[in-house]
Amino acid sequence: MEMLLSSSNVKNINRRVLVVEDEQINREILGAILGRDYDVDYAADGKEAWEKLHADCVNYSLILLDLMMPVMSGYELLEKISSDPAVKAIPVIVMTSEKDAEVKSIRQGAVDFISKPYDMPEVILARCERIIKLYEDRAMIKLTENDELTGLYSRDFFFEYVKWFDAYSLREGKTVDAIVFNIEHFHLINEMCGRSIGDSVLKELASCIQSVFSSSDFIAGRPGGDTFYVYCLNSDANTSCIKKVQWQMANFRDDLKIRVRAGIYQNVDFKVEPEGRFDRAKLACNRISGDYTATVAYYDNELHLKSIYNERLIRDVDVALKNGDFKVYYQPKYEITSDRPRLCSAEALIRWQHSELGMINPGVFIPLFEQNGLIQRIDNYVWDRAAAQISEWRKKFGRTVPVSVNVSRIDIFDQLLEVKLQHILKKNGITSNELMLEITESAYADNAEKLIETVNTLRGAGFKIEMDDFGTGYSSLNMITSICFDVLKLDMKFVKNMERDEKSLKLVEIVISIAKFLNVPVVAEGVETESQLGILKSMGCQVIQGFYFSRPVPAEDFEEFIRREEQ
Ligand code: C2E
Ligand code: MG
Ligand code: MG
């Protein structure tokens, strides 16, 4: 708060005061008192003042108003000012010699009064200064208190009000629910329809929340982006309120299919930090991301146990890195264009051999570590191990087995990404075409511009980029026209379903023809059977990765595949 208030300590320069006074002599006296510190404008009656107040490009910080004037009196002007939103925020000090008038004018909206005659210039100046500061501070607080776009509380103020709400609920012996709303694929609305449509969706959600919850005690905030918080007394009606908000949003515009997800943490534990309560509601909310059958998710015991498990994983990362509990496994990729499949490269995939919890698959911890940035340390570790392995195999077998490593969506934003990779290459004596980089297609939806920039930089430095999980995102077609890459990795979902469903088979065909058009090879992931391999080969897919050849295996076991190639 302190920081906010200091903004009005700026010198009085350029603040403009309007003196409304019919007597010339009084105008001159006030002008002499105020002119040193303020720009002063004058009006001889209420009508002239009203016109000046509405002139273009003029912003008054204060009005000094005489009451008895011809044409339009001070009282009339006060009344007009207090009912006009454009000017009612300007403070008015009334100048009068009658005691009764003071009370009456303050009732009508004046904030202070100065007694006539003006025989104490210092007091007048001090009063003006104090009122201006007070009003500017108030305006400043209002500005930061509310999220400018939606009018809901901004993050800090929301949590400030949560404290008050807690005190109130505890006093009344009531329980409280924390609710999180999130708009599914909001970034796509922004990207495809433009920011102003995106803004209108956010505003609509804020107004739906306010109108639907208006019959209960609640506070609402937008801590950022497309996430909204509601804190309200626990009630069975809350779920139907949430559904009402969702229904109204679904019908907001015919051309947009807006889906609002919600997570609710009921009867919050007051011992948990306020932010932690909303983290729990968010956890529930995230659980139904992409699940179109569920609209409201509850924070329950299962989620509670999961969050405890996740906290444990986060806590153990340091020790695990130190103890070498993270293992890098390698899965071979085979070139299938000739009669005999040939080993062409490998993908490095991490595993966590946890000392107490056993083997943990990346699907469990990678998404978790992506949320808190720990993924960067894991990835750096894997890149370094993979680079060392390439170098070791070269020495041992006299040939390079290029290894692809996964680059997480968080790494894309790292300004030092290229520097870090170059350092790893140098340290292990390998080159940028030996360590290939897999970037998941969904990173494009996060931030297309940044992804384009990063990919260009890395390709400029000689790295080969493989577009991972191609076909799963919503931006596949957009992406291929704006990014150059070297390999396309067909998502394994299509391979898995292609024998069962015609659509997946068609999609595989389309992706392979897109790759041909772009002149890049296709790697099909998740190939488990001979018949899948046959279909892919007949369609012109060049490289296969999957259990059909091998599961990901430790480096020692992988050496068997290299040896076999030599025979
Ligand atoms: P991905 O990069 O698409 O990796 C391929 C996943 O498919 C691997 O799962 C692999 O074991 C699995 N897979 C390969 N062939 C088959 C098959 O024939 N059938 C089936 N059912 N699965 C197959 P994994 O190792 O569990 O990794 C899952 C995901 O975790 C990876 O997907 C990748 O996105 C991420 N990941 C793994 N290691 C790392 C890492 O070091 N850094 C980052 N950022 N992400 C990683
Ligand atoms: Mg991958
Ligand atoms: Mg993949």
Protein model, in words:
The protein is an alpha/beta fold and 567 residues long. Helices cover 49% and strands 20% of the residues. Helix 11 links the parallel strand 9 and strand 10 (296-298). Helix 9 (195-212) packs antiparallel against helix 10 (237-250) and helix 14 (375-397) packs parallel to helix 15 (417-428). It binds ligand C2E and magnesium ion (MG) (2 copies). One magnesium ion binds at residues 468-469, 489, 525. One magnesium ion (MG) is lined by residues 347, 406, 438, 468.
Give me some keywords for this one.
disordered N terminus, 567 residues, binds magnesium ion, binds ligand C2E, 5-stranded parallel beta sheet, alpha/beta, elongated, single chain, 8-stranded mixed β-barrel
Q: Choose one word for the global shape.
A: elongated
As an assembly, this protein is single chain
Largest sheet composition: 8 strands, mixed, barrel
- The amount of beta strand, in percent, is 15-25%
How many H/I helical runs? 22
Number of strands: 20
| Regions with little confidence, pLDDT below 50 for 5+ residues | 1-12
Mean pLDDT: 90
Question: Which small-molecule species are bound to the chains here?
Answer: ligand C2E, magnesium ion
Side by side, the strands of the main sheet go 11-12-14-15-16-17-18-19
- Class inferred from helices and paired strands: alpha/beta
How big is the Rg?
33 Å
What percent of the residues sit in helical stretches (DSSP H or I)?
40-55%
Beginning-to-end CA distance, first to last residue:
74 Å
